[in-house]
Design a protein that fits this description.
It contains 7 helices and no strands. The protein has helices at about 10-15, 20-25, 30-50, 60-80, 85-90, 95-105, 110-125. Helix 2 (about 20-25) packs across helix 3, helix 4 packs across helix 5 (about 85-90) and helix 4 runs parallel beside helix 7 (about 110-125). The protein is elongated, with a radius of gyration of 20 Å.
C-alpha cells in the first residue's frame, strides 16, 4: 500500500502463535483472541520503542485510506487543470467543516493522505 510498510499480517501473527491457537482464534476462543491481540501489541511496542510510527489497520482501513488519497489527488489534478475548476474546488471546501478538522489531525493522518492534501492546498493557494 502506498506509503505503508506492512510488517506483520494475519498470516504471520497466526504462524507465530501456532496452529492450535490460530484455530481456536478463528473459532472465537477468548483466550486465543487475547493471545493474538497481545502478540500484535507486542510487535507494535517493539516498533514504537525504537522511534517508528506504528498503526494497526485492517485491510478495509488500508483500502479506505487509498481511496481517500485518490479522491484528494483527483481534486488536486482537477484544480490544476484550469482556474474556473480551481475556484469551484476552492468554494466546495468549507473552512470549518473540512479545513479546520484536517489541519488539526494533519500529523495523525497517513502520509499518502497528507501529501495529497498538501498538494491540493498549495494548488488552491495559487488561485488568482
Amino acid at each position: 500500500a502506498n506509503g505503508d510498510i506492512i510488517l506483520w499480517g494475519t498470516h504471520e501473527l497466526l504462524a507465530e502463535v501456532g496452529d492450535v491457537k490460530a484455530g481456536l482464534w478463528r473459532d472465537g476462543d477468548a483466550a486465543a483472541t487475547s493471545l493474538v491481540g497481545k502478540t500484535m501489541l507486542d510487535k507494535a511496542r517493539v516498533l514504537t520503542k525504537n522511534g517508528l510510527v506504528c498503526s494497526i489497520k485492517t485491510r478495509q482501513e488500508l483500502l479506505m485510506e487509498q481511496r481517500a488519497a485518490s479522491v484528494i489527488h483527483w481534486m488536486s489534478v482537477l484544480s490544476r487543470s484550469c482556474d474556473p475548476l480551481c475556484n469551484r474546488v476552492s468554494v466546495a471546501i468549507s473552512g470549518h467543516r473540512h479545513l479546520v478538522p484536517l489541519l488539526h489531525s494533519d500529523l495523525k493522518l497517513p502520509r499518502q493522505i497528507t501529501s495529497a492534501w498538501h498538494s491540493l492546498l498549495l494548488t488552491l493557494l495559487a488561485v488568482p
